[in-house]
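hey can u run this one w/ 3-methyl-2-oxobutanoic acid bound, need the structure tokens asap thx
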Amino acid sequence: MSADRPRITVFDTTLRDGEQSPGCSMNQQEKLRLAHQLDRLGVDVIEAGFPIASDGDFESVKAIAAVVRRPIIAGLARACRPDIERAWEALQYAAHPRIHVFLATSDIHLQYKLRITRDQCLAQAREAVRFAKSLCDNIEFSPEDATRTDPDFLCRVLEAVVEAGATTLNIPDTVGYTVPSEFGALIAKIRRQVKGIETVTISAHCHNDLGMAVANALAAVAAGARQVECTINGIGERAGNASLEEIVMAMRVRPDQFPYETGVASEQIFAASQMLSEITGVPVQPNKAITGRNAFAHEAGIHQDGVLKNPLTYEIMTPRSVGVPDSKLVLGKHSGRHALGIRCEQLGYQFDRRALDDVYRRFVRLADKIKHVEDHHLLELIRDTHKPATSATPLIEPVPPVIAATTNPPVPEPAKPFPATTQTNPFGAPLPVHSDTHQEQTQQEDYLWGV
Ligand code: KIV
Ligand code: ZN
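ok here u go:
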């Protein structure tokens, strides 16, 4: 951790914008559970809901405000009195309340959705923020569809709401339309042009319709934004919001490119992702960066061989750093002898080269028929091919059942004299030796992390 890196405020909107994604609605109990996990994760702001939207949302925001005391708790409101009053009613007992007021500013929204002129929009934004400020010190304003708004008009609205008391200016790419260079330039223009901008925090709120939400958020930070709005697993309207875990880990893994700090405890990321998926019943896409089940899995033989020799060959961050218990080698038809040999050891069998070749040939035939070769398949195959007492050398101490490639790579031990004090696994096979390269590994991880 470096003290001179700018601190980025992480604003989590999983419970508000995230909940708006199809199939992701949550009840009050579920929202509370997730809010506690977001607190453990260390986010700075939890947007707990949109209190006027429903009684359920109101009660959830109120309940979270009452019990989650460390982070700022935000509630969303349209730029009108009833919304702002309802938001405040839900938030008033929070330790750190924030009212988040939004109003569309693009011509297409003004003309077709709100049916108001630019001047009316400007006046409404100013009045709404002034009213919200009379209730609460901490006010965020969002010009909805900012990236399709005339930039000079956008700056006029922002200046008006700063003057009215807004403390955070959030710039939403509501429809996921912008690209990093353009969004960075927009943030830079706002910083140059809006009077009073140095007294407030600029925020980025990016949607993922073109798959650029995280890149856009990072471009905004590089241009001077100091808050990012994001969700766990990137859930949210349509293609989702910028993913919290991707933004945070981009900053952790590439401090040379993104020299910023967040307060996120990255080891809590996986737990948050799993909890959200369990609550909503919406699975995480297997190849989702950071939190997908394949994010740390290696199937290709060359990759497995490299990871077993040194995880840094194919892993840019440790699974443990995001709370994933272990790196996982998936045994399939692309796997090589090295990974197969290691897995056999973990199941209690160490083979010499010729014996492993026999197992390997049968393994490849099996892997051709079934996608993933599970441990029980392998055990069956080994038992068919070899008798442990004759062709395989049993080892002596237990290791965890999953290959711990990163934190404790199970490097094959030279065969131990047989018999030693043999322990057996649940299948009755002798258990292998625990290798000890932990210290060396930790040093490599420290180097990778640059901390
Ligand atoms: O995407 C959006 O514009 C929003 C605002 C309410 C901030 O979610
Ligand atoms: Zn949004």
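DSSP finds 16 helices and twelve strands in the chain. anyway lmk if its weird
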